[in-house]
Design brief:
It contains eight helices and nine strands. It is an alpha/beta fold and 298 residues long. It folds into two domains: 137 residues, no CATH class; 143 residues, no CATH class. β8 and β9 form a beta hairpin. α1 packs antiparallel against α7. The chain is globular.
Length: 298
């Protein structure tokens, strides 16, 4: 049996979650799981730094109370012991090498790798682990934060209301939305708007994603990028994007098909989504494809 690539390992975990959700066996749609960026963003316990890109969803969808994760060696070094039978979760990182080409220029090449981590809740004997922080959601504050994100987006496209469907139109660089009254609640309105604003970052004056609209794989990847981008933005605001899709079965089946056809899609889309969300938030285009390589050192 051929060894799985990093893309196949990571995508396989996402597919496993989707298949469990489809079968009603406790899985979830990783990018639709509600979580709060202020208190629940997964972090490495040793470095304290947050995970990036697809790692956020791989870890946050595991349903543990603690937001902190460690490698086996990190746990051992802190006097901890991973309980027998506990299953690790893979996270990705990039290794980079530099090589001089024939013209004398230094070329940087990235190699995708993965390693395994355990949640602090899977480890006995750890000391000084911050307790899970539970914050009662305040809907009004979350909606105000969502409105502020939209209002403060740099180079924001024009947003027009009164349309039957939500969409982003690249040719005129505008987001078209139904009126707020067409949504069940304002959380649903902002989650949808965040999806379209994530799409809008493909524009050449923003993140400049090259999308070929007539190619199905490109369209699927861009749609997943917007889905995940909206999830990052919902988390930043503190609103819930978990119940947007009415026909959940068809929705999950469509993504299962797309991910099985292209194992690289979800990793690439998540990296682009983090850059899209960073642009909307005005924090810059984070290099989500270069996450926390230092974590493997301990």
């Amino acid at each position: 049996m051929a060894k799985q690539s990093v893309y196949e390992v990571i995508t396989g975990r996402i597919i496993e979650q989707l298949e469990k959700a489809l079968a009603g066996e406790g899985g979830c749609i990783p990018w639709r799981k509600p979580w709060n960026a202020k208190t629940e963003w997964p972090r490495n316990l040793v470095s304290g730094k947050p995970y990036q890109g697809i790692n956020v969803f791989l870890l946050s969808s595991q349903r543990y109370e603690s937001q902190y994760w460690l490698t086996f060696k990190q746990a051992f070094a802190r006097g901890g012991s991973v309980r027998k039978g506990e299953r690790s979760t893979p996270v990705i990182f990039w290794n980079f090498t530099e090589k001089e080409d024939e013209a004398g220029k230094i070329r940087k090449t990235g190699f995708l790798r993965y390693y395994s981590v355990f949640n602090a809740s899977q480890i006995d004997g750890l000391e000084n682990v911050p307790a899970p922080e539970f914050v009662e959601p305040d809907e009004n504050e979350a909606l105000e934060a969502a409105a502020a994100i939209v209002a403060n987006m740099p180079n924001r496209p024009e947003i027009k209301h009164g349309f039957a469907q939500a969409c982003y139109v690249p040719s005129c660089d505008e987001v078209r939305m139904p009126s707020q009254g067409k949504f069940h609640d304002l959380s649903g309105y902002f989650a949808t708007l965040f999806h379209e604003l994530s799409h809008s970052t493909l524009h050449e004056t923003r993140c400049d994603r090259q999308v070929k609209p007539l190619e199905m794989e490109e369209r699927s990847k861009e749609e997943l990028c917007a889905e995940i981008g909206a999830s990052f933005l919902c988390a930043a605001a503190g609103i819930n994007n978990a119940a947007l899709e009415e026909n959940t079965t068809a929705y999950i089946m469509s993504w299962l098909k797309a991910l099985k056809n292209d194992p690289k899609m979800v990793i690439s889309a998540a990296a682009q989504a983090q850059k899209a969300a960073a642009y909307v938030l005005g924090t810059g285009a984070d290099h989500a494809e270069e996450p926390i390589a230092h974590d493997i050192a301990a």
